[in-house]
Amino acid sequence: MLIFGERINGMFTDIGDALRNKDPKPIQYWAVKQQEGGAHYLDVNSGPAIPTHERVEAYEWMVNVIQEVSELPLVLDSTNYDAIEAGLKVCKRPAIINSCPAEQVKIERVFPMAIQYNAGIIGLTMDKKGIPKDAENRVAFAMELVAAADEYGVPMEDLFIDPLILPVNVAQEHAPEVLESLRQVKMLANPAPRTVLGLSNVSQKSPDRNLINRTYMAMAIASGLDAAIMDANDDDLVDVAATCQILLNRSVYADSYLKVFRAR
C-alpha cells in the first residue's frame, strides 16, 4: 500500500501563497513533514495558484525545491502536460504522471511521455462526458487504459487505475461502485494494473471527515486498492493502511509493524 502525500497543492492557502511568491519554505516544510508521516511519494499540484501560462516554469521550480530536502519520488499532478513534462525533466527518481483519462488524444500525449521519462501513469476511468455512475462503465474505461499501456509498452505495474471516488455527501451511490471497480480492475490483465484513489474526495464537506476517510480506505484496500493520495500526517489513517497490510497477509506481522510500514 503506497501513500501519496496530498499536501503540496496550491488549493491550500500556504502552498498557493508560496507558489505566487516563489517561497520554497512552505513547500519544503510539507515535503519533509509528509515524508516523516509515512508518505512514499509526494503529490505535487499547483492548483489554481499559478496561471496556465506560468505552470511549465512553476513545476520545474517545485520539483527542484522539493528535491533539495526530500528523496521521495514525486507524483506530478496537472492537466497541463507541458508542465508535467518540465517537472519530469528534472526529477531525480522515476515519477508518476497524474493523470490521463480514457481519451485518445490525451493517451497519445501521456503514454509516450511516460516511456520517455520512465514514469508511471495514473489513468482515470472517465472521458470527455465525465465520470460514469456504475462500475461497469468505469471498468470499460480502465480496459481502454490497460490496452493503451500494452500498445505503448508501459509496464502494467506502472499503470495506476483511479476509479474516481466522489464525495459521499452528494454522490453516495458511487461509493460501492468504486469498490466494485477496484475488484474488477484486478482481473483485466496478468499482471494486473495497480489502483489508486484520491481518498480525501470521499469526505469533502462532511463533518466526520477523518472517520469517513479511515473507514473507506480500509474497505478499498480489502477490495484491491494499492495506493491513495491522502493525508500522510493523519497518524490514525496511516495506521489503518499499515494494519490492513498485515490483516490481508500482504506484510509479515511484527510487533513493530507500524514503524516498519513508515520506514519503507
TrEMBL record:
<feature type="domain" description="Pterin-binding">
    <location>
        <begin position="1"/>
        <end position="248"/>
    </location>
</feature>
<dbReference type="GO" id="GO:0050667">
    <property type="term" value="P:homocysteine metabolic process"/>
</dbReference>
<keyword id="KW-0489">Methyltransferase</keyword>
<dbReference type="GO" id="GO:0005829">
    <property type="term" value="C:cytosol"/>
</dbReference>
<keyword id="KW-0808">Transferase</keyword>
<dbReference type="GO" id="GO:0046872">
    <property type="term" value="F:metal ion binding"/>
</dbReference>
<keyword id="KW-0846">Cobalamin</keyword>
<dbReference type="Pfam" id="PF00809">
    <property type="entry name" value="Pterin_bind"/>
</dbReference>
<dbReference type="GO" id="GO:0031419">
    <property type="term" value="F:cobalamin binding"/>
</dbReference>
<keyword id="KW-0479">Metal-binding</keyword>
<dbReference type="InterPro" id="IPR050554">
    <property type="entry name" value="Met_Synthase/Corrinoid"/>
</dbReference>
<dbReference type="GO" id="GO:0046653">
    <property type="term" value="P:tetrahydrofolate metabolic process"/>
</dbReference>
<protein>
    <submittedName>
        <fullName>Methyltetrahydrofolate--corrinoid iron-sulfur protein Co-methyltransferase</fullName>
    </submittedName>
</protein>
<keyword id="KW-0170">Cobalt</keyword>
<dbReference type="GO" id="GO:0008705">
    <property type="term" value="F:methionine synthase activity"/>
</dbReference>
<dbReference type="GO" id="GO:0032259">
    <property type="term" value="P:methylation"/>
</dbReference>
<dbReference type="InterPro" id="IPR000489">
    <property type="entry name" value="Pterin-binding_dom"/>
</dbReference>
<dbReference type="InterPro" id="IPR011005">
    <property type="entry name" value="Dihydropteroate_synth-like_sf"/>
</dbReference>
<comment type="similarity">
    <text>Belongs to the vitamin-B12 dependent methionine synthase family.</text>
</comment>
